Amino acid sequence: MSSTLPNPAQPADTPATGTARVKRGMAEQLKGGVIMDVVTPEQAKIAEDAGAVAVMALERVPADIRKDGGVARMSDPDMVEGIIGAVSIPVMAKSRIGHFVEAQVLQSLGVDYIDESEVLTPADEVNHSDKWAFTTPFVCGATGLGEALRRIAEGAAMIRSKGEAGTGNVVEAVRHLRRIKNEIARLRGYDNNELYAAAKELRAPYELVKEVADLGRLPVVLFSAGGVATPADAALMRQLGAEGVFVGSGIFKSGDPARRAAAIVKATTFYDDPKVVADASRNLGEAMVGINCDTLPEAERYANRGW
Amino acid sequence: MSNTPVVGVLALQGDVREHLVALAAADAVARPVRRPEELADVDGLVVPGGESTTISKLAVLFGLMEPLRAHVRAGLPVYGTCAGMIMLADKILDPRSGQETIGGIDMIVRRNAFGRQNESFEARVDVRGVGGGAVEGLFIRAPWVESVGAGAEVLAEHGGHVVAVRQGNALATSFHPELTGDHRVHRLFVDMVRADRTAESL
To answer: Is A270 in Cβ contact with B124 (below 8 Å)?
Structure first.
């Protein structure tokens, strides 16, 4: 496993695809931006026109996956290709946790990022996919630093909070981001002797724990996901340290998707300017209704999926 | 006037932090720029990598596009990487509807010309004006330059395509030196900024 970016003194003369730098570098290009869930080419165009940096192509937004129940799987290839053909911005798609064949299919379709996602029904209760085996980069969810580093050890090139997708309630995403941030801050205060025990406690490789302690941040880009429904939600996540925001059901389950999408993009850029966030929040129509996370039965909590 | 040039990084969206780090390593004072009035305080500007359609929309939305054009026309040194290269092109071959650019370099650029993410790659690139051997080029859903006008100088090619261009005080690369830890291209740009300041103070 290679945790740090290879920086060979003599890079190959033949072009190299799928390197850690190329995969992680792709996520760096998304920073400061909003990635929107879309279920049709028309929605993808609305998202692109509103200033999304990428779209997540899926058959049902998390709010509908919750409502419908049953097994949630990778989207139909026709539907993913329809969205790839409709926009010029990057297109992401979700595979089930541990379902490396769904990931192989998505790679063959040419998606730009694969989200190994707890929003879909997990296919493996023990193992996540070996993400080093792919040219296409992966983003994975994490509720804390240990989980984030385990995913990076498996090859994830980008991390997002898990939040509680499809609820329109940011409380879980806030918890995950605060936890990751606090755990990083604690590592910063440790001396070298303590980092070995910290690695054991985090159940993460020592090399990655040491790298985080030195950097003061994850070695890959960190986004927020789950429950963002308003411009102020997006700005909150950025002020808490997210480098960008995924918005799932919050846009196309609202009254005026195009307007709300553009407003969330504005608030994500000027997240630290309350005047801009206030302007972006005006006259957006109905927000998605939302679910109180305390009333969610344990079995319906997506954040518990993945380990 | 201190001898250390102040270089802004357009901070609407993209890999702003990496450019700030690279510019500081190349002996400039680096700061993010998000508002029109902040443009007046910088000696040069980097337009970072990111999503060009997003950066373009936000620049129009927040009243930055016209001030950016005015400053570049007036000779403000600018350097664009990837999406930044697209923003500095006078013309895009395949623009999304309504996608505007700052312009400044007489060239036609093709977006995502090297392909989607699965085709993104790293390769060594010889850049004219950058000593010490080839630089490591990271090409991420990268554009290439279809053609350049008489006033623009081609600094680098890869696979038969133009990937680095300079015209006067404007510099653009298809690839991302800010992601490699090799700051020689940023040094070239900071030297351009320094030379521009010296010329102005004469």
So the answer is: no
Out of B71, B158, B176, B186, which one is annotated catalytic?
B176
Residues of chain B neighbouring A16 (CB-CB closer than 8 A): 121-123
Q: Residue A280 is inside which H or E element, if any?
A: helix A274-281
Looking at the predicted structure, is the pLDDT value of residue A108 above 70?
A: yes
Asked if B54 and A31 come within 8 Å (Cβ–Cβ), the reply is no
Number of other residues whose CB lies within 10 A of the CB of residue B119: 18
pLDDT higher than threshold 60 for residue B194: yes
Helix/strand/coil percentages in chain A, nearest 5? 45, 10, 40
> Which residues in chain B have their CB less than 8 angstroms from residue A90's CB?
51, 116-117, 141
Position with higher pLDDT, A305 vs B9: B9
The DSSP call for residue A224 is B
Annotated active-site residue B183? The verdict is no
Task: Find the residue in B nearest to A272 (Cα).
Answer: B34
Running DSSP on this structure, what letter comes out for residue A19? -
Which residues of chain B have a CB within 8 Å of the CB of A33?
Answer: 13-14, 50-51, 54
Q: What is the DSSP string of B8-74?
A: EEE-SSSSHHHHHHHHHHTT-EEEEE-SGGGGGG-SEEEE-SS-HHHHHHHHHHTT-HHHHHHHHHT
Phi, psi of B39 (to 5 degrees): -65, -30
- Catalytic residue flag (residue B146): no
Say whether A67 is catalytic.
no
ipTM for the predicted complex: 0.95
How many CB atoms sit inside 10 A of residue A55's CB?
28
B156, β-bridge pairs? B164
Give the count of beta carbons closer than 10 Å to the beta carbon of residue B11: 21
List C-alpha distances in Å: A94 to A60, A68, A85, B112.
11, 18, 18, 23
Closest-CA distance of chain A to residue B65, Å: 15
Tens digits of per-residue pLDDT, A232-257?
Answer: 999 999 999 999 999 988 898 888 99
Q: Chains A and B: how many Cβ contacts under 8 Å?
A: 129
What residue has token string 């941040």? A217
Confidence of residue A67 (pLDDT cuts 50, 70, 90): confident
Which member of A31, A45, A94, A200 is catalytic? A94
CA A14 – CA B49 distance, rounded (Å): 24
pLDDT in tens, B33-68: 999 999 999 999 999 999 999 999 999 999 999 999
